[in-house]
Specification:
Elements: H1 2-8, H2 16-28, H3 31-77, H4 82-95, H5 104-149, H6 167-180, H7 184-201, H8 225-231, H9 236-239, H10 242-258, H11 267-286, H12 299-313, H13 316-351, H14 354-359
Helix pairs in contact: 2-3, 3-4, 3-5, 3-13, 5-6, 5-7, 11-12, 11-13
Length: about 350
């Protein structure tokens, strides 16, 4: 029976990220730890690109600082003639052998890779959430009717066209019979089996009861029908099907009342926003703005707010990805800066004449 149920349930997603996450989960035992480990691996693989991006940016900043007085003088002298000003600035860059776009290549590569990973992994995790929520509900439907139907529950049923029937189609007649039964013990047994199966299949992490939903006290760990329909990506026809909704509530509402609780306490939201702010602040400390300009801009506020918004809108899995990424950035940035400082020091020493270097 278990093998038949496994074959009947919806198939696992086959995307690259989904396969990697499920592969890690099979070894670690939890999806939460899988996404944390995957994020660390991704960030470490991307660290050489990040290093070269910061290296080229630092070199450009030093060259820019060296000629900044001349740039200011040109800007002041030709303030009323943009064409001549741009010409003089171009001559200055050419004379000093500085390419203002020199650091753009590695920066564009870094941004492109980061966005590609972010978008594809984001879609992969949404697909995983859809699969896990829908798959769990299918198992709960079977648990709900299995004892009542007994040997009569045939999960290998075909429709008139020879296609395998869905779990919902197979279980629906039994669900309706249980609902119509005047024997309360029948309903109690069905709900008890659902509760047992739920605890066998639920995926929690620390204080979070359901990792496929957001870490917020405004969401119950047992999704409502509208939340289920959204996460499971039901078709418009199923979403608006009153019978489908009634069956869902018949099975899940008692579970929600007996087992459900708030899914979180905004911990990941606050942590994600704080880490985003800290990363932005450290970046401004390491790369101060030129004299007379303010570096504390809209990004210092907008980025943390955007990160917090994502944690509330999407699953705990996605929040863990963002937080882990922020933590790895905090850990690796000082190391990258230290390596760059050592390289700069070695290069400066090579520029010092040997007799002067001995005196130093």
């Amino acid at each position: 029976m278990d093998n038949l149920i496994s074959n009947l349930l919806m198939s696992q997603p086959g995307g690259l990220w989904e396969r990697i996450i499920m592969g890690l989960e099979s070894g670690l035992g939890t999806f939460a730890l899988s996404i944390i480990l995957l994020t660390i691996i991704i960030k470490l693989i991307m660290s050489p690109v990040d290093f070269f991006n910061k290296r080229t940016s630092r070199k450009m900043q030093k060259m820019q600082a060296k000629i900044q007085p001349q740039i200011d003088a040109i800007n002041k002298k030709y303030a009323n003639d943009d064409k001549l000003k741009n010409q003089k600035l171009g001559e200055l860059y050419q004379r000093e052998k500085i390419n203002p776009m020199g650091s753009c290549g590695i920066m564009i590569l870094n941004i492109g890779l980061t966005l590609a990973i972010f978008i594809t992994l984001f879609n992969g995790m949404n697909t995983m959430a859809s699969y896990k929520i829908a798959n769990q509900y299918e198992q709960l439907q079977i648990a709900y009717v299995q004892e009542y139907a007994g040997d009569g529950l045939n999960l290998d049923q075909k429709d008139e066209e020879g296609n395998q029937k869905s779990v919902y189609e197979i279980c629906l007649p039994y669900i309706q019979q249980i609902n119509a039964s005047e024997d309360q013990s029948v309903k109690d047994t069905a709900h008890a089996n659902v509760q047992k199966k739920y605890h066998e299949t639920k995926e929690s992490f620390l204080w979070i009861e359901n990792i496929w939903m957001a870490d917020t006290p405004f969401k119950n760990s047992i999704p409502s029908y509208s939340e289920y329909a959204s996460v499971a990506r039901l078709s418009k026809e199923d979403r608006e099907n009153e019978e489908y909704k009634a069956v869902y509530e018949q099975i899940m509402n008692p579970l929600k009342e007996s087992t459900g609780r708030v899914n979180g306490f905004f911990v990941l939201t606050v942590l994600c926003a704080a880490l985003a702010f800290l990363n932005q602040w450290l970046m401004t400390r390491k790369n101060p703005a030129p004299a007379g300009q303010k570096r504390f801009g809209i990004a210092m506020i907008l980025m943390p707010l955007l990160m917090a918004f994502f944690t509330l809108l999407y699953t705990t899995m996605f929040s863990l990805y963002m937080i882990t990424g922020q933590l790895v950035t905090l850990a690796t940035t000082p190391l990258i800066d230290l390596i760059n400082d050592k390289i700069d020091k070695i290069q400066e020493q090579k520029k010092i004449p040997k007799d002067r270097l001995k005196r130093i």
